[in-house]
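Entry type: protein chain
Record version: 2
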Amino acid sequence: MWQGVPMRYVVFNRKGGVGKSTIVCNLAAVAAASGRRTLVVDLDPQGNASHYLLGTEPDPERTVSKFFESTLGFSLIGGNRPEQWVQPTPFERLSLMAADATLADLQNKLETKFKINKLRDQLVALEDAFEVVLIDTPPALSFFTVSALIAADRCLIPFDCDEFSRRALYQLLASVEEIRADHNPDLRVGGIVVNHYQAQAKLPRQMVEALIDEGLPVLQPYLSPSVKVRESHRAHQPLVHYDPKHRVAEQFNRLWQSVEAVGRQPPEMPALGG
């Protein structure tokens, strides 16, 4: 799925606090600002990405929870439309399948009913509506994360330059490879997104250099820490809108170019380590 066909990216890490929602929303905002019809799918019951983009509670009838609820019933009429679970954001060309707290309550039912492929089916049904999809995930290898990995073409892995992230990285890569082998042969690691990178500190430089020396796909540029990111959270405006000339906004612009370049690579390329 490349060149002219919608690309679907999942941002995944089992570790919390690595910036998944920030990365999803800012890359999506850059993609939309550059002219791409873009969809964010928020699969984290905390709903941080939804709150970042909306600033208010989502329309309760147009959430990812309502979408999954619809898959648990049976209707002879079959009146559900793929776009009915999507709501607009204040930003042009940027739409959202929002999360709310009820999402966590659905997990056991969805697992029991074997609904693991339903998100992929939904995104396939939306292929004509969106050119780019970015999926935010909870910090665990849960039903929702596996659903996202099955639905995606590329997996982006945030890495926040500490020893815990380094130790977890290899498990993450193994999990992606397992999903690829068992459920989604088109899935590839789209790259490691280095977040909270302090260029003047010795340890972050050493850790990132070690990843590169191991042949891992580290994306450029690295994202700097900044209070401006937190300000953008509070303002409910991704940086490309909140402060487009800020250095981190410029980093997100260049990072999206790197992500797109990887997305355009043909699917027959070997998987990481394959």
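Comment: Strands lie at 7-11, 38-42, 87-88, 94-97, 132-136, 154-159, 188-194.
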